[in-house]
């Protein structure tokens, strides 16, 4: 019968139940053998307690670029996310990760990876150590109405509100979300230029256009989409007027604003998306990251109204359908299959731009049925006297994508938008640049020889590397006894960084954080030396290693080298129970949560008392 003395220490909490540290005991058949120090960890709900504080910033607290706030429901998270090539402070759907839109809290604020969001009772602000900048999102401005908390609500709204009276909201992200290209349910589009004047997009693909969505005051639920040239706001502009359906928005009389309705289904994930020349209402269809965004509504629905919706190098036919121009294919074929074309088209053969003879293999396709020439800020006239000179002028630049030679030479750089095909004269024509699928014969032969040589070198080098790794790993291969891995002392010393990260210390030894197999984080217990033998130690460890129960943390392995005795356990990320009960930095545990913790401990003890094959006294 095994005897244990329980202790609570170290960083040992897992998924809702506390870790009961393992205890000193004797083998049932050998009372003359020295005792062995072992650990059995009973889990508790520390993760739930930690989650209580993840949605809130109290006065004096901050989150860095690598940290987020998570709403209590776990649906939304707030942090510094990649957006338009920068980091922006935004909100996204937590479980969708890369598939989620980013609802920007404050547009046009770009951050580095050294950004921090901080909260004081009278101020919510960001600091960027790289840019040496500070931006105040909200301030009480000395009016005496200092806030107490900044909290991410289950609606996805990030608010600053009074602690004693949560209905008193001083600031909310829903008022400022209309500065990005996505709007979440509950947020506003208003005519007030201070709060949510418009929802804007600045495309991230070197597009020569900007796009805005604004309230049309002349009509109930009316809106206007405006497309203009990015660097010439006084230049050509395209406007499209529509009306939001009543099931999608709520119109506020007298304030010229609309609010995006919250989905009727609590599990529905929806948002409003503005892309170049088109606004769409999308709903997620799928499970987790596996799924797609389905379009429930869009305006305009036909490219005959706005050719911009065909994307870069996409053209609108007279039938109002988008298609890629010759030599191009859909950039995102799945989205084109679903009827969303704004991702545009990409060249089948990418252009080659080296230093010498790089452009002679690029070809052009003639588009001779365009309804007018593309309008672009990146189009310019060239002093060419022939079509060949105009072509050479285009080939001399990697950024040139098309040229036209009629009464003079004009070249276009970067991507082409707003292309329409005509089915009757007058026609306009341009030559669009393609990559090349063929190489010069001499260059091709040289590339083949070089490729074969590189393959041979790679095979020899790869074989040598595999052989060397095999020999090295064979000499270091870890032994396995039963369910446990046997580690050498050198392996655990390296895994713990020479035992530099101490998690805790008790009467039986110290616990250190370590990493094995390159990515698995573990807790390593370095037992105090005693006189028991290696055979007895291994026998005891094997007994404990066979214990498998959901409320107990697994023993992964051990080390018995000379007089050294170490145990390797699963690493518990949420800390010890006392850190949640007595620490000044943790919120108080509710009685319901305390009850659940006690129940978890009881289940672990019940297993040790009644279900375990080896009876264990603790």
Automatic annotation (TrEMBL):
Keyword Disulfide bond: yes
Entry EC no(s): 2.7.11.1
Catalytic activity: L-threonyl-[protein] + ATP = O-phospho-L-threonyl-[protein] + ADP + H(+); L-seryl-[protein] + ATP = O-phospho-L-seryl-[protein] + ADP + H(+)
Listed InterPro entries: Bulb-type_lectin_dom, Bulb-type_lectin_dom_sf, G-type_lectin_kinases/EP1-like, Kinase-like_dom_sf, Pan_app, Prot_kinase_dom, Protein_kinase_ATP_BS, S_locus_glycoprot_dom
GO biological process: recognition of pollen; response to other organism
Principal EC category: transferase
Organism: Panicum hallii var. hallii
Location of the protein in the cell: Cell membrane
Protein name: non-specific serine/threonine protein kinase
Domain Protein kinase: 497-618
């Amino acid at each position: 019968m095994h005897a244990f003395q329980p202790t609570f220490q170290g960083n040992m909490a897992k998924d809702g139940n506390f870790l009961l540290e393992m205890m000193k005991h004797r083998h049932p058949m050998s009372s003359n053998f020295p005792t062995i120090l072992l650990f059995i960890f009973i889990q508790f709900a520390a993760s739930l307690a930690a989650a209580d504080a993840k949605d809130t910033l109290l006065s004096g607290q901050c989150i860095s670029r690598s940290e987020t706030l998570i709403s209590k429901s776990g649906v939304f998270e707030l942090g510094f996310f990649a957006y338009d090539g920068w980091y922006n402070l935004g909100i996204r759907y937590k479980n969708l990760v890369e598939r989620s839109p980013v609802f920007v809290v404050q547009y046009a604020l770009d951050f580095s990876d050294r950004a921090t969001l901080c909260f004081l009772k009278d101020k919510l602000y960001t600091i960027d150590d790289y840019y040496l900048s500070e931006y105040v999102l909200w301030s009480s401005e000395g009016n005496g109405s200092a806030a107490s908390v900044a909290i991410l609500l289950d609606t996805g709204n990030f608010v600053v509100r009074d602690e004693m009276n949560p209905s008193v909201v001083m600031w909310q992200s829903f008022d400022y979300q209309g500065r990005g290209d996505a709007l979440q349910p509950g947020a506003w589009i208003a005519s007030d230029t201070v709060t949510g004047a418009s929802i804007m997009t600045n495309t991230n693909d070197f597009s020569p256009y900007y796009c805005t969505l604004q309230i049309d005051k002349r009509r109930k639920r009316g809106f206007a989409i405006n497309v203009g040239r990015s660097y010439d706001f006084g230049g050509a502009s395209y406007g499209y007027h529509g009306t939001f359906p009543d099931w999608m928005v709520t119109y506020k009389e007298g304030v010229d604003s609309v609010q995006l309705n919250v989905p009727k289904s609590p599990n529905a994930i929806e948002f409003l998306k503005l892309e170049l020349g088109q606004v769409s209402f999308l709903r997620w269809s799928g499970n987790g990251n596996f799924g797609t965004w389905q379009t429930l509504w869009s305006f305009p629905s036909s490219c005959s109204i706005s050719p911009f919706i065909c994307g870069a190098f996409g053209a609108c036919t007279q039938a109002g359908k988008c298609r890629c121009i010759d030599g191009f294919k859909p950039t995102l074929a799945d989205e084109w299959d679903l009827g969303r074309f704004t991702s545009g088209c990409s060249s089948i053969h990418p252009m080659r731009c080296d230093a010498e003879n790089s452009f002679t293999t690029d070809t052009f396709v003639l588009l001779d049925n365009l309804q007018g020439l593309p309008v672009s800020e990146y189009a310019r006239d060239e002093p060419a006297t022939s079509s060949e000179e105009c072509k050479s002028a285009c080939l001399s630049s990697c950024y040139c994508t098309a040229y036209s030679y009629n009464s003079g030479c004009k070249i276009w750089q970067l991507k082409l938008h707003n292309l329409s095909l005509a089915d009757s004269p007058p026609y306009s024509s341009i030559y669009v640049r393609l990559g090349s699928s063929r190489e010069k014969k001499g260059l091709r032969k040289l590339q083949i020889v070089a490729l074969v040589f590189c393959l041979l070198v790679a095979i020899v080098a790869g074989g040598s590397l595999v052989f060397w790794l095999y020999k090295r790993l064979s000499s270091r291969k870890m032994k396995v006894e039963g369910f446990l891995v046997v580690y050498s002392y050198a392996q655990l010393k390296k895994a713990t960084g020479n035992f530099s990260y101490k998690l805790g210390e008790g009467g039986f030894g110290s616990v250190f954080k370590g990493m094995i197999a390159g990515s698995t984080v573990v807790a390593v217990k370095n037992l105090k030396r005693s006189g028991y033998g290696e055979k007895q130690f291994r026998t005891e460890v094997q007994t404990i290693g066979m214990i498998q129960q959901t409320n107990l943390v697994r023993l992964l392995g051990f080390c018995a080298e000379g007089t050294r005795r170490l145990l390797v356990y699963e690493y518990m990320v949420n800390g010890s129970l006392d850190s949640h009960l007595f620490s000044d930095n943790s919120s108080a545990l509710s009685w319901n949560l305390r009850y659940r913790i006690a129940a978890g401990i009881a289940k672990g003890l019940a297993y040790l008392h009644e279900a375990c094959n080896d009876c264990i006294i603790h």
